[in-house]
Amino acid sequence: MTKQPSNQATQNPRIAKRLANIELSLIRQINALATPLSVNLGIGEPNVEPDETLRAFAVKAAATGSWHYTPNAGTLKLRTLIADGGRESRVGGRSLPTAGNQVSPTPDSRLPTPVEFDPKSEVCVTAGTEEALFSIMQAFVDPGDEVLVPNPGFLAYATLARIAGATPVTYEIDPPDWRVDADALLARITPKTKLIVVNSPSNPLGSVIDRETLQRIANAGPLVVSDEVYRAIWYETPPPSMLGMSGNVIVVGGMSKSHAMTGLRLGWILAAETLMKPIVTAHQYIATCASAFSQSLAESILSDDAWNRAWLERVRAQFRAQRESALFSIARELEVAIPAPAAAFYAFVPVPSYDTEMFARTLATDAAVLVIPGVAFGSMGEGFIRISYAASIDEIGTGVERIGRWLRGAAL
Ligand SMILES: Cc1ncc(COP(=O)(O)O)c(C=O)c1O
Question: Whose CA is nearest to atom 16 of ligand 1?
Answer without folding.
Answer: 203
